[in-house]
């Protein structure tokens, strides 16, 4: 009896998840009347705006990962080594982006960094790009910090540092050549998750008016019928790829990163 | 003394970043919610939230978040319980967890597209129901751009999140508890009602709060799905930031502040409940 209920729950749930995926794929192939074709994909891939926005978002995602690593790794390391009492504070701050909706944060950016402020970042394109980058880094912060902190917990940070210092290494060298390689697995899983989040992010990019992939998808969705389905399939493939790689890596390195 | 001074220096970049791009922008909005255009302290903005338009947007947002969190909890729990203790083959758990990891992050604009392609007017399921069973769900009053449509769409990331969080809690239920209950003559129903559910209750309630916050702050999915036809809070705030549709910037700050309060309370509930749940998970 219990088994019947279990299967029922799994089948109903499975159908719920499978049908939209099948529906999207089927819809994306329907562009040519009467037969299945890849026309929608062709149309999307040959759109110069697709290429421009997609490469913009990929670049932003990579920069976000770099910025995230630069902020998180030294901080998490330093706190573990020298300021353990500060850990709850740092942890609390890194969880804030999960509490404060992204739309509120970006609203604050627009107000705080407008053209008449002390730091008029939104006045220029490069300034706005920088602002968006920092916004993405805050979005990635909870995942990145959690990943790196878990990675660090498997190391004897103090002994490693003392060993490196007694061999004459400076701080930059210790973090870059010793700590970072040792938490690389954790950093990579955080990085893939950040990539998946940033690549299709809509709210911040749209409100800061940047030509990112998320707003492009939304615009296409409002104006076309079949191309959005093709985009959804592509986006799902990207998410799947990122998360698949992340799970693979976290299995290889034995770290868990969900901030729950 | 000198040592302490130097140690602080190591976390300055982090605090500077958090201050500039997280704390100050948020504080700015919160303060703006309590100021009038002249910069004086006022509660008028918060009072302005009581206007029918904003109240109804909060009401529908909260209703959608409640419905999707509740259904997400129920269905996610059923699926997780089926895998952990339902007697289905062990190999199902791995793929289910992997898939949940992916699906819980598959939100935003593409998710809206997926549901339009599936349950939209010419979507796959809509068409198949009509062709195979002669059921026209749109004639029956279903609309993807509605309360139920949005709730159904949100479930796509809510259920996986529930599965990810509750599976470890279910696995933490000790065999001995069940055996002890059975030795004392409890039926399966009694075991669940009097042992398992009370232990799981904080986890369930905490996850419910988390799911609630999760859907309350979601902008992209709703915007891509409904444009601006459904006035939920994030959509209205989005329109407000873009073009001051409330015709009062400070009312916009008050609305954003209201959003922080709701998601903040939900997350607080999650943290408190999690701390309680951990008592049993040793």
From TrEMBL, chain A:
Keywords: Cell inner membrane, Cell membrane, Membrane, Transmembrane, Transmembrane helix, Transport. Its main location: membrane. PROSITE patterns: ABC_TM1 (PS50928). It is found in: Cell inner membrane; Cell membrane. Residues 54-246 form the ABC transmembrane type-1 domain. The chain crosses the membrane at residues 7-29, 54-77, 89-110, 183-208, 228-249. It is a multi-pass membrane protein. GO terms for cellular component: plasma membrane. GO terms for biological process: transmembrane transport. Gene3D superfamilies: MetI-like. InterPro entries: MetI-like, MetI-like_sf. Belongs to the binding-protein-dependent transport system permease family. This is Binding-protein-dependent transport systems inner membrane component. It comes from Paracoccus denitrificans (strain Pd 1222).
